[in-house]
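Rather than argue in generalities, we have chosen a single entry, letters for residues, whole numbers for local backbone shapes, without further comment.
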Amino acid sequence: MSPLPAPFWQTKKLGEMSHDEWEALCDGCGRCCLLKLEDEDTGEIYLTKLACKLLDLGQCRCGDYTKRHELVHDCLSIDPESVKALSWLPASCAYRRISDGRDLAWWHPLVSGDPETVHRAGISVRGFARLETNANSDELERYIIENFNED
């Protein structure tokens, strides 16, 4: 009996993955959909607990993934070239982990076989994020939860 082949994320670089493999790497945490604020004077980036208006806070998935760029003008696509440049991608992000030469975490749905493990592990924004539409745009600073420029 021959051993099972290694999973695609252990044998391929991000740029070698098919579209379906790339999409499967998303763990459904919703962290990339949290609003970021940039200090115009210092360039520092701050993460908020406010999520994009399209994020389904229960599923932690985009509510209109195919039209997201039409509906949200500043929605960014994450691709193999941008992973290293996006300093705000959390260390837990599968794209960041693979780019950094690490394996997927135990809670990742591709490893656990269960899309709920990302939530049970406390990695997702479920339970603490709120939609940007429920916040006063003049008070966004009060929703800051992290400074991404700190090491």
